């Protein structure tokens, strides 16, 4: 394949002006940092700076009061070099094109880092789920699915849950796709209800993956799991599930922060009780089994491990200079800014990056997709066993790459992934 004259294109894309501190700016910086390590494949790296396909859709729905509400929806297929697009759909008031592009890019890297046969994609609709009724959410889901219907499919691009989307939303997506195409193909989305072709263990898979990877990382760093003090940012599906598994294994959850507040207890929180409290509607704040602290004070809590499991851009350089943890496990996508990566490296703090640390979700999505094709379903034991095997193997490969190349784990994960993506891209060649 001909060499790309990268410098000619670095002006970027006309349809997005990346904020250097925003998610797409972060992704571009991460690509910039890996490029010198890619040898002759570096000539092809320009392709990673350009999402393959970007779709912006209007999602009009009838609101419960009879008016028409318009929502902005996106589906970005960052790369399809290694297989169909794969990645979740989020419903959040902060969703932007720039964010969805970055999340799609991280899916490309994640799927390749774990060696799943997928490209990378992501979707989102900008809305505040707290302000919509269940019926309105269903209508948004169905209209959004219809609008992106032309580019998704079991062999094209397979959505899944992400922030504020769940198995019920996947059931509506699957049904809408089936009604529109006449194909009752359950493999068009993953993270569905188990009754509808979903996989056992999928709902917990991301949190379980953080736990599996975390245990392995602690062992590699000679840090005991028993009594390890863990601070968790975000108490949604990923944060709560990882916290529960770590607590069950003997670690202490010493602080939890969510979008509304933060709590701390140096002797360890009861995760099940905290979950019950937070489901009451006020978040973690006010939990009687802990002290309610200022949200920002969360970053100063004495701990050994920090799990950012909320949104991107949370670990800024300033916060990275304050945290007490020796190990950061990225449950969220893109939680650490590049400058914070530098600060953490200077301070000798190890970061297990999102693209491997939270890959448990998409790994079990892959199992779900395979099971749907085969119409044959595995036991939860098989799922959890294969998940742990894949994640541990991927971490070993990335850890060894980091040691051999003398780079941080994030760069190592990007080296492994980008080599796979760009090699596939070169093997396929340009057509026409
Ligand atoms: N939303 C999850 C992620 O960020 C899972 C995606 C999937 O299962 O396709 O990795």
What key attributes describe this structure?
globular, 432 residues, alpha/beta, Rossmann fold, binds glutamic acid, 7-stranded mixed sheet, 4-stranded mixed sheet
Walk me through this protein's architecture.
The protein has helices spanning 23-34, 97-113, 134-147, 167-181, 205-220, 237-248, 271-282, 317-320, 338-346, 354-357, 360-374, 380-405, 409-428, and strands spanning 53-62, 68-79, 85-86, 89-92, 120-126, 157-158, 229-233, 252-257, 262-264, 291-293, 305-308, 327-329, 350-352. β4, α2 (97-113) and β5 form a beta-alpha-beta unit. Among the domains are: 51-184, Leucine Dehydrogenase, chain A, domain 1 (Rossmann fold, 3-Layer(aba) Sandwich); 205-357, 3-Layer(aba) Sandwich (Rossmann fold). The chain is of the alpha/beta class. 41% of the residues lie in helices and 15% in strands. The radius of gyration is 21 Å and the shape is globular. The strands form three sheets. Strands 10-9-8-7-11-12-13 form a seven-stranded mixed sheet, sandwiched between helices. α11 (360-374) packs across α12 (380-405). It starts with 22 loop residues before the first helix and ends with a helix. The model is unreliable at 5-9 (pLDDT under 50). The chain binds glutamic acid. Glutamic acid is lined by residues 86-88, 160, 162, 190-191, 333, 358, 361-362, 365.
């Amino acid at each position: 394949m001909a060499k790309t004259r990268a410098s000619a294109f670095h002006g970027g894309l006309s349809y997005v002006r990346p904020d250097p501190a925003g998610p797409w700016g972060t992704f571009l910086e991460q690509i910039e940092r890996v490029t010198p390590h890619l040898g002759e494949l570096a000539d092809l790296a320009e392709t990673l700076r350009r999402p393959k396909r970007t779709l912006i859709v209007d999602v009009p729905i009838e609101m419960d009061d009879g008016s028409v509400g318009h929502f902005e929806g996106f589906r970005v297929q960052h790369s399809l070099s290694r297989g169909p697009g794969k990645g979740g759909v989020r419903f959040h008031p902060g969703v932007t094109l720039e964010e969805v592009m970055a999340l799609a890019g991280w899916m490309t890297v994640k799927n390749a880092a774990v060696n799943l046969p997928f490209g990378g994609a992501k979707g989102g609709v900008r809305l505040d789920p707290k302000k919509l009724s269940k019926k309105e959410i269903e209508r948004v889901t169905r209209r959004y699915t219809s609008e992106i219907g032309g580019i998704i499919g079991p062999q094209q691009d397979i959505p899944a849950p992400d922030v504020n989307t769940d198995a019920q939303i996947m059931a509506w997506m699957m049904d809408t796709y089936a009604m529109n195409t006449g194909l009752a193909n359950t493999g068009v989305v993953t993270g569905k209800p188990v009754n509808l072709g979903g996989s056992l263990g999928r709902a917990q898979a991301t949190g379980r993956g953080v736990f599996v990877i975390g245990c392995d990382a602690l062992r590699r760093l000679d840090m005991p799991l028993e009594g390890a003090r863990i601070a968790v940012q975000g108490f949604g599906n990923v944060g709560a599930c990882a916290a529960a598994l770590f607590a069950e294994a003997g670690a202490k959850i010493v602080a939890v922060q969510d979008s509304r507040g933060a709590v701390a207890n140096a002797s360890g929180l009861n995760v099940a009780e905290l979950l019950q409290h937070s489901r009451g509607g006020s978040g973690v704040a006010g939990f009687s089994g802990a002290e309610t602290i200022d949200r920002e004070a969360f970053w100063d809590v004495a701990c050994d491990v920090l799990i950012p499991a909320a949104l991107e851009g949370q670990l800024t350089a300033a916060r990275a200079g304050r945290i007490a943890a020796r190990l950061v496990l990225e449950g969220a996508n893109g939680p650490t800014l590049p400058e914070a990566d530098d600060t953490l490296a200077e301070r000798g703090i190890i970061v297990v990056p999102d693209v491997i640390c939270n890959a448990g979700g998409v790994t079990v999505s892959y199992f779900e997709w395979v099971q749907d094709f085969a119409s044959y379903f595995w036991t939860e034991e098989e799922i959890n066993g294969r998940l742990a095997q894949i994640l541990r193997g991927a971490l070993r490969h990335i850890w060894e790459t980091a040691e051999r190349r003398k780079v941080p784990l994030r760069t190592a994960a990007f080296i492994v992934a980008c080599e796979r993506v760009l090699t596939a891209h070169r093997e396929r060649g340009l057509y026409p």
